[in-house]
Specification:
Number of helices of chain B: 19
CATH architecture of chain A: 3-Layer(aba) Sandwich
Strand order of the largest sheet of chain B: 11-10-12-13-15-14-21
CATH topology of the largest domain in chain B: Pyruvate-ferredoxin Oxidoreductase, domain 3
CATH superfamily of the largest domain in chain B: Pyruvate-ferredoxin oxidoreductase, PFOR, domain III
Shape of chain A: globular
Distance between the termini of chain B: 24 Å
CATH architecture of the largest domain in chain B: 3-Layer(aba) Sandwich
CATH class of chain A: Alpha Beta
CATH topology of chain A: Rossmann fold
Radius of gyration of chain A: 21 Å
Largest interface: A-B, 64 and 76 residues
Shape of chain B: globular
Oligomer: heterodimer
Helix content of chain B: 25-40%
Number of domains of chain B: 4
Strand content of chain B: 15-25%
Radius of gyration of chain B: 27 Å
Structural class of chain A: alpha/beta
Helix content of chain A: 25-40%
CATH superfamily of chain A: Thiamin diphosphate (ThDP)-binding fold, Pyr/PP domains
CATH class of the largest domain in chain B: Alpha Beta
Strand order of the largest sheet of chain A: 2-1-3-4-8-7-13-9
Distance between the termini of chain A: 65 Å
Order of helices and strands of chain A: HEHEHEHHEEEHEHEHEEEEHEHHH
Structural class of chain B: alpha/beta
Number of strands of chain B: 24
Strand content of chain A: 15-25%
Chain lengths: 351, 613
């Protein structure tokens, strides 16, 4: 047995999207993660987002590092090329892949062990460079595959399953992403699909470095009292700044909202993020204010979620590199090779 | 007193201070000798420093065209007080010391067995120029002018070179010519020019050869070979590969209509990221390369294993320097063979190409890009500091316009649509190389999951023993295929039957050419094979088998190529004799001749491990 395939038989009444795909066309084989793992909910949210956006599955490249989270790309988008790279190095491989073909959608999936420890450097530099990607960290504060050691995002004072207390300060990946220049930064909770799915949709539509930190409880090793990454803790301390409706194109506002509670962000591709504000003074277009807000609320033990920052008109690595619109992997001798006559001139200049 | 007299066959060495602007004047001196039809082989000897520390520029003038380092010094141009004592000591008895005599130097600082030529360079400069910057620049040119008189060089060739260098910059051209003549006229009037025994005489031994650095040539190879993605991290002595790639791309790879780039270069945060980007780009169907040196290879090792096992093309230019660890960053060695050939955990092995000069750097980088796609694996181009950072005379670069890029086995959307069976790790024709698909090829077929874990022929995860072994055996078949694809060795037979053979590679080549001529002349015939690729072609083992004993000449301490020969060919280690030179200076013919002649003269066999003089 190599993996558990799902039955190929599709129910004829399954809904199809505009491209004629059913939700099943975006799935992968059956997950081998633990029952109740938050990561499976995130996989489901990715599947739902891709279905909603009418994406052709083969136009997505999904890349990951090593760990429980990095196994998930097997379980979604089975018609997409996937790449399970090495520990903490997904960002560099994805950067190279993105340079080779700017036409695909790049989904990088990682975990807190993969991205906040060994991969912290590569995470930082992918954000700085503005690689056009969706970078999802499935954040459970713990190393699952090696059975329950603290990760670098575990909160100070957080308690391990066997009772150890974490004394190290946590790495705040959202704070880092904001500081490093990511142009789309969000945090969500694997148990809040209504918030997560539109965030993923908006991140896919975003043409720049999009980072989503998804708190995703580990049912096997980090879901007990004393943990700050458990289902109970996050539900109790979830401080959502907004709920988001993602629309590929602007639609009429049909629901009545309190004045000042709805903000629309139009992204470069025409897609619209309609934010229903839960904190009326929160401005997701202000990077510095977002950092201050996060720091203040996190100091109180709150888990701030929602769309935290978005630059509606981002730039990306290809803009900086000034590359041709055609994918570099589609260029051949004609476009790339200067020919023998040019070499003769070079020879002449070297005598 | 003995006086060295030589025409077109001597070594002159410039002792300078790093950052004093001497490099371009020294190069002009070397190049003007080339323009007189006399081959030269210059070498920069420099510290890991930007300003202030000593540097040397050693020029071997060699009418016969022996481009290896000779060793010894016939004239020292001593411009650095800091290294005066050791510079004076280095001059061959009967040789010459040229120095700036503006300030008196005590007699005890000289030697009795050398000829001293003093020229008041600073005084001449300061009397003529007031601007500090001009003084620094023109002192170097005045020095060249003085030397041109001593060596009896054709001053018109130097004028022509200055003219080419400052074409369109008349304001700089004239003062340079003036400075040149200022120095030359002073020397002709005040120095015993005819009495200086080293002379350059016009010859016709350069032909159409070109003069360039290996790193520049490697970058051109990447441009011609179709690399579109370059990811790198600065490290001596490889940085100028990526910098030259940038320069050539800005000339040849910009869409003339839109001004957009047909390339992307990323200066990564470290070598881990640079090789990661190369692998990502290779996975996604672009030709990609990185350039690095030994310490960078150490960092890349995990990723190299991934690319081997997941079968992803990657081209790595390793400009080798002295190891281990940070080692000798600005000195040369061939000491990364083992760390590259068997890089990473588990059973891994990787093809290596060994260029001998800049021309082969150009050819082999372009070739490596083809081989990486054909073999779907990392390919190393094993150059070194001696080739990479020195200008070397070599045959002109050539390109066949009918050549197409070999993209290897890539299954297309049409083939997938037609229902052709696609197994990412399925060997369809026995050469061990499977088909791959680029991401995004077909809506329903051809997608697969790439991973560093074990998998079956259809890329499905499996830890079953037979499945694992099946895959490893296929990789071994691919390795066999590679033996016929990497560049073949080049053999030079002795004029008569020889019981000894010698194997060498890479930058040892010019010194070995000279040594072989000398051994022939001494009546010591020896057959020579220059290995150009790993895995070894069958003819390499046949060469060893057809000789009683074979010397393996290399520039490392442990005889790394020899170990690989013994390992891969199951050779009797007693039949392969190491000849090892590894003090960080380029190997010399003198060293090789002494080592081999000594060994041939004796019957007992012990390893030769001594440092060159």
């Amino acid at each position: 047995m190599t993996y558990l395939a799902k039955p190929k038989l599709h129910h004829p009444t399954l809904a199809k999207n505009k491209r004629g795909f059913t939700r099943r066309d975006y799935e992968g084989p059956v997950s081998t993660l633990c029952a109740g793992c938050g990561h499976d909910s995130i996989s489901a949210a990715i599947i739902q987002a891709a279905f909603n956006l009418d994406i052709e599955p083969h136009r997505v490249a999904k890349l990951s590092g090593i760990g429980c989270s990095s196994k998930t790309p097997t379980y979604f988008l089975g018609q997409s090329h996937g790449f399970n790279t090495v520990h903490g190095r997904m960002p560099s491989v994805l950067t190279g892949a993105n340079l080779a073909n700017r036409d695909l959608i790049y989904m990088g999936v990682s975990g807190d062990g993969d991205s906040a420890s060994i991969g912290l450097g590569q995470f930082a530099h992918a954000m700085r460079r503005g690689v056009n990607m969706v970078y999802i960290v499935m954040n459970n504060g713990v190393y699952g595959l090696t059975k329950g050691q603290f990760s670098a995002t575990a909160d100070k004072g957080s308690k391990a399953k066997k009772g150890a207390i974490n004394n190290d300060s946590p790495v705040d990946m959202v704070g880092l992403a904001l500081q490093l220049g990511a142009t789309f930064v969000a945090r969500s909770f694997s148990g809040d699909k209504a918030q997560l799915v539109p965030l993923i949709e908006a991140a896919i539509a975003h043409q720049g470095a999009a980072f989503i930190d998804v708190v995703s409880p580990c049912v096997a090793f980090n879901n007990h009292p004393g943990s700050t990454k458990s289902y109970d803790y996050v539900r109790e301390h979830n401080e959502a700044v907004n709920r988001i409706d993602f629309m590929p194109h602007r639609e009429e506002i049909t629901t009545e909202y309190e004045p000042g509670t709805v903000q629309e962000v139009v992204q470069h591709d025409g897609s619209v993020l309609r934010l229903r504000k839960l904190h009326t003074d929160y401005d997701p277009n202000n990077r510095i204010a977002a950092m201050n807000f996060l720091q203040e609320h996190q100091a109180r033990g709150e888990v701030v979620t929602g769309l935290l920052y978005v630059d509606p008109d981002p730039e990306d690595l290809h803009i900086y590199a000034n590359t041709v619109p055609v994918p570099l992997n589609a260029l051949g001798e004609r476009e790339l090779c200067p020919r023998a006559a040019a070499l003769e001139k070079i020879n002449a200049s070297l005598r | 007193m003995k006086k060295i007299s030589a025409v077109n066959d001597f070594v002159v060495k410039f002792a300078n201070v790093n950052g004093s602007g001497s490099a371009s004047a020294n190069e002009m001196f070397a190049r003007s000798i080339l323009r007189m039809g006399v081959p030269v082989s210059p070498r920069n000897i420099f510290p890991s420093n930007i300003q202030g520390l000593p540097t040397w520029y050693e020029i071997r003038v060699t009418e016969k065209g022996y481009l290896g380092r000779r060793g010894g010094c016939d004239m020292m141009v001593a411009m650095n007080p800091q290294t005066w004592d050791s510079d004076v000591k280095e001059i061959e008895p009967g040789g010459y010391l040229f120095y700036d005599s503006t300030r008196p130097i005590p007699r005890s600082k000289f030697r009795d067995d050398i000829h001293v030529i003093g020229m008041p360079l600073t005084q001449i400069t300061n009397e003529t120029y007031t601007d500090v910057r001009q003084r620094t620049l023109f002192k170097n040119i005045i020095c060249v002018g003085g030397l041109s008189a001593l060596f009896d060089m054709d001053v018109q060739e130097i004028e022509r070179l200055i003219g080419e260098q400052y074409r369109g910059k008349e304001a700089l051209l004239k003062p340079n010519i003036q400075a040149l003549h200022l120095g030359r006229d002073y020397a002709l009037a005040n120095l015993d020019c005819p009495g200086m025994g080293l002379k350059v005489r016009r010859a016709d031994n350069v032909g159409d050869r070109i003069f360039l650095e290996g790193n520049n040539a490697a970058a051109l190879g990447a441009v011609y070979g179709g690399a579109t993605v370059c990811a790198w991290y600065p490290i001596t002595p490889s940085s100028s590969v990526a910098e030259a790639f940038q320069k050539h791309c800005s000339k040849f790879r910009v869409d003339p209509e839109t001004g957009k780039n047909r390339y992307a270069i990323v200066q990564a945060e470290d070598e881990l990221a640079s090789i990661g980007m190369v692998i990502g780009a290779g996975w996604n169907g672009a030709r990609a390369f990185t350039a690095t040196s030994g310490p960078g290879i150490s960092l890349m090792t995990e990723f190299i294993g991934l690319a081997y096992f997941a079968e992803i093309p990657a081209t790595i230019v390793n400009v080798q320097r002295g190891g281990p660890s940070t080692g000798m960053p600005t000195r040369t060695q061939q000491a990364d063979l083992l760390s590259c050939a068997y890089a990473s955990n588990g059973d891994t092995k990787h093809p290596l190409l060994f260029p001998e000069d800049p021309r082969e750097c150009f050819e082999f980088v372009a070739e490596a890009l083809d081989l990486a796609d054909r073999l779907q694996t990392p390919i190393f181009v094993m150059t070194d500091l001696d080739i990479g950072m020195n200008q070397r005379l070599c045959r002109p670069l050539t390109w066949d316009d009918s050549r197409t890029y070999d993209r290897g086995k890539v299954m297309t959307a049409a083939e997938l649509e037609a229902g052709r069976d696609f197994g990412r790790y399925l060997d369809v024709d026995g050469d061990g190389i499977p088909f791959r698909t680029y991401p995004g090829t077909h809506p329903k077929r051809g997608a697969f999951f790439t991973r560093g874990t074990t998998k079956d022929r259809y890329a499905r995860y499996s830890e079953e023993g037979p499945v694992y072994v099946d895959n490893m055996e296929r990789l071994e078949r691919k390795w066999e295929t590679a033996k016929d694809l990497v560049p073949r060795p080049v053999v030079r037979r002795a004029p008569r039957a020889a019981k000894f053979g010698v194997i060498y590679f890479g930058s040892t080549s010019p010194a070995m050419d000279e040594a072989l001529d000398a051994l022939d002349a001494q009546g010591k015939p020896i057959d020579a094979m220059r290995v150009r690729g790993f895995p070894f072609h069958a003819s390499v083992m046949e060469f060893v088998d057809s000789h009683e004993q074979v010397f393996v000449v290399e520039q490392n301490r442990d005889g790394q190529l020899r170990s690989m020969l013994i390992n891969e060919g199951n050779l009797d280690s007693a039949r392969v004799i190491p000849v090892l030179h590894y003090d960080g200076t380029p190997i010399t013919a003198r060293f090789i001749i002494a080592a081999i002649a000594d060994r041939m003269a004796r019957s007992n066999v012990t390893p030769i491990k001594k440092v060159a003089q």
